[in-house]
Protein backbone atom coordinates (compact mmCIF):
# COMPACT_ATOMS: atom_id res chain seq x y z
CA UNK A 1 0.00 0.00 0.00
CA UNK A 2 1.70 3.24 -1.12
CA UNK A 3 2.05 6.04 1.41
CA UNK A 4 1.83 9.70 0.43
CA UNK A 5 3.96 12.27 2.15
CA UNK A 6 0.85 13.94 3.54
CA UNK A 7 -0.90 10.82 4.79
CA UNK A 8 1.20 9.67 7.75
CA UNK A 9 -1.87 9.18 9.93
CA UNK A 10 -3.14 6.58 7.44
CA UNK A 11 0.14 4.65 7.36
CA UNK A 12 -0.10 0.88 7.92
CA UNK A 13 1.67 1.22 11.28
CA UNK A 14 -1.01 3.63 12.50
CA UNK A 15 -3.72 1.31 11.26
CA UNK A 16 -2.15 -1.59 13.16
CA UNK A 17 -1.83 0.52 16.32
CA UNK A 18 -5.49 1.52 16.07
CA UNK A 19 -6.53 -2.12 15.65
CA UNK A 20 -4.48 -3.18 18.65
CA UNK A 21 -5.85 -0.39 20.81
CA UNK A 22 -9.44 -1.17 19.81
CA UNK A 23 -9.06 -4.89 20.39
CA UNK A 24 -6.85 -4.94 23.47
CA UNK A 25 -9.72 -5.38 25.92
CA UNK A 26 -10.61 -8.71 24.31
CA UNK A 27 -7.08 -10.12 24.28
CA UNK A 28 -5.89 -12.93 26.55
CA UNK A 29 -3.92 -11.56 29.50
CA UNK A 30 -0.46 -12.43 28.17
CA UNK A 31 -1.15 -10.97 24.72
CA UNK A 32 -2.64 -7.86 26.33
CA UNK A 33 0.69 -7.30 28.07
CA UNK A 34 2.44 -7.30 24.70
CA UNK A 35 -0.15 -4.97 23.19
CA UNK A 36 0.12 -2.55 26.09
CA UNK A 37 3.91 -2.52 25.90
CA UNK A 38 3.91 -1.85 22.16
CA UNK A 39 1.34 0.95 22.37
CA UNK A 40 3.15 2.66 25.24
CA UNK A 41 6.59 2.34 23.66
CA UNK A 42 6.12 3.09 19.97
CA UNK A 43 8.86 5.71 20.37
CA UNK A 44 11.50 3.06 21.07
CA UNK A 45 10.06 -0.01 19.34
CA UNK A 46 12.32 0.39 16.27
CA UNK A 47 15.24 -0.70 18.47
CA UNK A 48 13.41 -3.74 19.86
CA UNK A 49 13.36 -7.39 18.85
CA UNK A 50 10.69 -9.99 19.47
CA UNK A 51 12.85 -11.36 22.28
CA UNK A 52 13.39 -7.99 23.96
CA UNK A 53 9.69 -7.10 23.74
CA UNK A 54 8.80 -10.47 25.26
CA UNK A 55 11.31 -9.99 28.08
CA UNK A 56 10.09 -6.50 28.95
CA UNK A 57 6.44 -7.50 28.76
CA UNK A 58 7.09 -10.60 30.86
CA UNK A 59 5.82 -13.10 28.29
CA UNK A 60 7.23 -15.65 25.86
CA UNK A 61 8.51 -14.62 22.43
CA UNK A 62 5.83 -16.83 20.87
CA UNK A 63 3.19 -14.66 22.53
CA UNK A 64 4.53 -11.56 20.77
CA UNK A 65 4.12 -13.15 17.36
CA UNK A 66 0.70 -14.55 18.26
CA UNK A 67 -0.57 -11.12 19.30
CA UNK A 68 0.67 -9.48 16.09
CA UNK A 69 -0.86 -12.18 13.89
CA UNK A 70 -4.19 -11.70 15.64
CA UNK A 71 -4.25 -8.24 14.04
CA UNK A 72 -3.23 -9.43 10.55
CA UNK A 73 0.46 -8.68 10.97
CA UNK A 74 2.61 -11.66 10.05
CA UNK A 75 4.92 -11.52 13.06
CA UNK A 76 7.95 -9.40 13.93
CA UNK A 77 9.42 -9.41 10.42
CA UNK A 78 6.40 -7.63 8.96
CA UNK A 79 6.09 -5.42 12.05
CA UNK A 80 9.69 -4.21 11.63
CA UNK A 81 9.02 -3.57 7.94
CA UNK A 82 6.06 -1.35 8.89
CA UNK A 83 8.29 0.55 11.30
CA UNK A 84 10.99 1.11 8.67
CA UNK A 85 8.39 2.25 6.16
CA UNK A 86 6.81 4.67 8.59
CA UNK A 87 9.95 6.38 9.80
CA UNK A 88 11.75 6.53 6.47
CA UNK A 89 8.76 8.23 4.82
CA UNK A 90 7.43 10.45 7.59
CA UNK A 91 10.74 11.84 8.79
CA UNK A 92 9.92 10.80 12.35
CA UNK A 93 12.73 9.79 14.66
CA UNK A 94 12.08 7.03 17.19
CA UNK A 95 8.37 7.47 16.87
CA UNK A 96 8.29 11.25 17.28
CA UNK A 97 8.04 13.84 14.59
CA UNK A 98 10.94 16.20 14.35
CA UNK A 99 9.90 19.53 15.77
CA UNK A 100 11.77 22.71 16.43
CA UNK A 101 11.60 23.88 20.01
CA UNK A 102 11.12 27.55 20.67
CA UNK A 103 14.26 29.38 21.68
CA UNK A 104 13.23 29.52 25.34
CA UNK A 105 12.55 25.79 25.55
CA UNK A 106 15.72 24.95 23.65
CA UNK A 107 17.74 26.99 26.12
CA UNK A 108 15.95 25.28 28.99
CA UNK A 109 16.69 21.87 27.52
CA UNK A 110 20.36 22.78 27.16
CA UNK A 111 20.60 23.83 30.80
CA UNK A 112 18.79 20.70 32.02
CA UNK A 113 20.99 18.40 29.96
CA UNK A 114 24.07 20.22 31.22
CA UNK A 115 22.96 19.40 34.76
CA UNK A 116 22.59 15.71 33.91
CA UNK A 117 25.99 15.78 32.21
CA UNK A 118 27.54 17.16 35.40
CA UNK A 119 26.16 14.17 37.29
CA UNK A 120 27.59 11.74 34.73
CA UNK A 121 30.93 13.57 34.94
CA UNK A 122 31.15 12.48 38.58
CA UNK A 123 30.76 8.77 37.85
CA UNK A 124 34.48 7.99 37.80
CA UNK A 125 35.45 10.29 40.64
CA UNK A 126 36.58 9.10 44.08
CA UNK A 127 33.28 10.40 45.53
CA UNK A 128 31.15 8.23 43.25
CA UNK A 129 33.37 5.21 43.84
CA UNK A 130 33.13 5.70 47.60
CA UNK A 131 29.36 6.08 47.40
CA UNK A 132 29.05 2.89 45.36
CA UNK A 133 31.30 0.93 47.71
CA UNK A 134 29.37 2.07 50.79
CA UNK A 135 26.00 1.26 49.24
CA UNK A 136 27.16 -2.13 48.01
CA UNK A 137 29.34 -3.18 50.93
CA UNK A 138 27.51 -2.01 54.05
CA UNK A 139 25.50 -4.50 56.08
CA UNK A 140 22.51 -2.17 56.17
CA UNK A 141 21.53 0.85 54.09
CA UNK A 142 19.10 3.51 55.28
CA UNK A 143 17.74 6.02 52.78
CA UNK A 144 16.19 9.33 53.76
CA UNK A 145 14.99 12.56 52.18
CA UNK A 146 12.97 15.54 53.24
CA UNK A 147 10.26 17.95 52.17
CA UNK A 148 9.57 17.91 48.43
CA UNK A 149 12.18 15.23 47.65
CA UNK A 150 11.09 12.70 50.26
CA UNK A 151 9.24 10.85 47.53
CA UNK A 152 12.39 10.63 45.44
CA UNK A 153 14.25 9.12 48.41
CA UNK A 154 11.47 6.60 49.06
CA UNK A 155 11.50 5.58 45.40
CA UNK A 156 15.29 5.18 45.53
CA UNK A 157 15.01 3.01 48.64
CA UNK A 158 12.57 0.68 46.90
CA UNK A 159 14.76 0.39 43.84
CA UNK A 160 17.91 -0.13 45.88
CA UNK A 161 16.15 -2.92 47.79
CA UNK A 162 15.91 -4.85 44.51
CA UNK A 163 19.68 -4.63 44.10
CA UNK A 164 20.67 -5.70 47.63
CA UNK A 165 19.37 -6.85 51.01
CA UNK A 166 18.70 -4.79 54.13
CA UNK A 167 17.58 -1.47 52.67
CA UNK A 168 15.11 0.65 54.66
CA UNK A 169 13.61 4.08 54.24
CA UNK A 170 14.35 6.21 57.31
CA UNK A 171 12.03 8.98 58.47
CA UNK A 172 13.31 10.96 61.40
CA UNK A 173 9.89 12.56 61.91
CA UNK A 174 7.85 9.37 61.83
CA UNK A 175 10.04 7.12 63.96
CA UNK A 176 12.45 9.53 65.65
CA UNK A 177 15.27 7.19 64.58
CA UNK A 178 13.93 4.17 66.46
CA UNK A 179 15.50 2.06 63.69
CA UNK A 180 18.91 2.96 65.16
CA UNK A 181 18.26 1.90 68.76
CA UNK A 182 19.88 -1.49 68.14
CA UNK A 183 23.64 -1.89 68.07
CA UNK A 184 25.51 -1.23 64.84
CA UNK A 185 25.73 -4.37 62.65
CA UNK A 186 29.16 -5.97 62.37
CA UNK A 187 29.36 -5.23 58.66
CA UNK A 188 28.60 -1.57 59.29
CA UNK A 189 25.76 0.54 57.95
CA UNK A 190 25.30 3.40 55.54
CA UNK A 191 22.99 6.39 55.36
CA UNK A 192 22.02 7.59 51.89
CA UNK A 193 20.54 11.07 52.16
CA UNK A 194 18.86 13.45 49.70
CA UNK A 195 18.75 17.13 50.67
CA UNK A 196 18.27 20.33 48.67
CA UNK A 197 17.41 23.97 49.25
CA UNK A 198 15.71 24.85 51.55
CA UNK A 199 17.81 22.40 53.53
CA UNK A 200 15.94 20.38 56.14
CA UNK A 201 16.70 21.50 59.68
CA UNK A 202 17.27 17.91 60.81
CA UNK A 203 19.38 16.75 57.85
CA UNK A 204 22.80 17.70 59.19
CA UNK A 205 21.99 16.35 62.67
CA UNK A 206 20.80 12.99 61.31
CA UNK A 207 24.02 12.75 59.32
CA UNK A 208 26.05 13.48 62.48
CA UNK A 209 24.15 10.86 64.46
CA UNK A 210 24.84 8.36 61.68
CA UNK A 211 28.55 9.17 61.82
CA UNK A 212 28.54 8.81 65.62
CA UNK A 213 27.16 5.29 65.10
CA UNK A 214 30.06 4.52 62.79
CA UNK A 215 27.92 4.58 59.67
CA UNK A 216 29.02 5.86 56.29
CA UNK A 217 27.12 8.82 54.86
CA UNK A 218 26.35 9.28 51.16
CA UNK A 219 24.75 12.62 50.30
CA UNK A 220 23.04 13.48 47.03
CA UNK A 221 22.45 17.21 47.04
CA UNK A 222 22.33 20.36 44.94
CA UNK A 223 25.19 22.69 44.06
CA UNK A 224 24.80 24.94 47.11
CA UNK A 225 24.90 22.55 50.07
CA UNK A 226 27.09 24.17 52.71
CA UNK A 227 27.31 21.45 55.35
CA UNK A 228 28.23 18.32 53.40
CA UNK A 229 31.99 18.61 53.07
CA UNK A 230 33.86 17.21 56.05
CA UNK A 231 30.81 15.31 57.28
CA UNK A 232 29.59 13.07 54.45
CA UNK A 233 31.92 10.35 53.20
CA UNK A 234 30.75 10.88 49.62
CA UNK A 235 28.90 13.82 48.08
CA UNK A 236 27.26 13.73 44.66
CA UNK A 237 26.18 17.19 43.49
CA UNK A 238 23.23 17.51 41.12
CA UNK A 239 22.68 21.06 39.81
CA UNK A 240 19.17 22.28 40.52
CA UNK A 241 19.02 25.95 39.48
CA UNK A 242 18.00 25.65 35.85
CA UNK A 243 15.43 28.43 35.58
CA UNK A 244 12.32 26.39 36.24
CA UNK A 245 9.54 27.55 38.57
CA UNK A 246 10.88 25.15 41.20
CA UNK A 247 14.36 23.71 41.40
CA UNK A 248 14.98 20.94 38.90
CA UNK A 249 15.18 17.38 40.24
CA UNK A 250 16.37 15.86 36.97
CA UNK A 251 19.97 15.63 38.17
CA UNK A 252 18.92 14.10 41.49
CA UNK A 253 16.97 11.39 39.67
CA UNK A 254 19.97 10.70 37.44
CA UNK A 255 22.28 10.40 40.44
CA UNK A 256 19.87 8.05 42.22
CA UNK A 257 19.48 5.82 39.15
CA UNK A 258 23.21 5.64 38.52
CA UNK A 259 23.98 4.76 42.14
CA UNK A 260 21.35 1.99 42.19
CA UNK A 261 22.80 0.59 38.97
CA UNK A 262 26.38 0.80 40.26
CA UNK A 263 25.36 -0.89 43.51
CA UNK A 264 23.72 -3.75 41.61
CA UNK A 265 26.86 -4.24 39.53
CA UNK A 266 29.29 -4.01 42.45
CA UNK A 267 27.37 -5.87 45.12
CA UNK A 268 28.34 -9.37 44.07
CA UNK A 269 24.77 -10.57 44.63
CA UNK A 270 22.81 -12.67 42.18
CA UNK A 271 20.86 -9.71 40.83
CA UNK A 272 19.13 -11.76 38.14
CA UNK A 273 18.08 -14.28 40.77
CA UNK A 274 16.80 -11.49 43.02
CA UNK A 275 14.70 -10.07 40.21
CA UNK A 276 13.23 -13.46 39.39
CA UNK A 277 12.35 -14.06 43.04
CA UNK A 278 10.75 -10.62 43.26
CA UNK A 279 8.72 -11.22 40.12
CA UNK A 280 7.51 -14.58 41.42
CA UNK A 281 6.29 -13.02 44.66
CA UNK A 282 4.72 -10.10 42.81
CA UNK A 283 2.82 -12.44 40.52
CA UNK A 284 1.50 -14.34 43.52
CA UNK A 285 0.04 -11.06 44.80
CA UNK A 286 -1.75 -10.75 41.44
CA UNK A 287 -0.93 -7.05 41.25
CA UNK A 288 -0.30 -7.22 37.51
Report on the structure:
- Strands 4-3-5-6-7 form a five-stranded parallel sheet, sandwiched between helices.
- Helix 2 crosses helix 4.
- It has 288 residues and is an alpha/beta fold.
- The protein is built from twelve helices and seven strands.
- It is globular.
- Helix content is 51%, strand content 10%.
- The N terminus is likely disordered.
- The relative contact order is 0.10.
Write the layout of secondary structure elements.
Blueprint: H1 12-23, H2 29-40, H3 50-57, H4 61-70, H5 75-90, E1 92-93, E2 96-97, H6 103-120, H7 126-137, E3 140-145, H8 150-163, E4 167-169, H9 172-175, E5 189-195, H10 203-212, E6 216-221, E7 234-237, H11 250-266, H12 271-285
Parallel strand pairs: 3-4, 3-5, 5-6, 6-7
Antiparallel strand pairs: 1-2
Helix pairs in contact: 2-3, 2-4, 3-4, 6-11, 7-11, 8-11
Features:
single chain; 288 residues; alpha/beta; 12 helices; 7 strands; globular
**Strand element count:** 7
Major sheet size, sense and barrel closure: 5 strands, parallel
Quickly give the structural class. alpha/beta
Number of helices: 12
Low-confidence stretches: 1-10
End-to-end separation in angstroms reads: 38 Å
Order of helices and strands: HHHHHEEHHEHEHEHEEHH
Fraction of residues in helix: 40-55%
Whole-angstrom Rg: 23 Å
Report the mean per-residue pLDDT as an integer: 87
Give the strand line-up of the largest sheet: 4-3-5-6-7
Shape: globular
Strand content: 5-15%
Amino acid sequence: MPIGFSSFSDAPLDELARKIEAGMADLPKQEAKVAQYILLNLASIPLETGQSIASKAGVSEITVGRMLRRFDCAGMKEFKALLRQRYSVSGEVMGRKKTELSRDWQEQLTVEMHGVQMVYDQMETPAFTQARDLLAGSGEVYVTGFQTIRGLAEDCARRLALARDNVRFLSGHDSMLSEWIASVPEAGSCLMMFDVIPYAAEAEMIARIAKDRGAGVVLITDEYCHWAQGLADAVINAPSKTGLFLESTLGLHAAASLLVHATAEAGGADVAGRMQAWKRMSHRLKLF
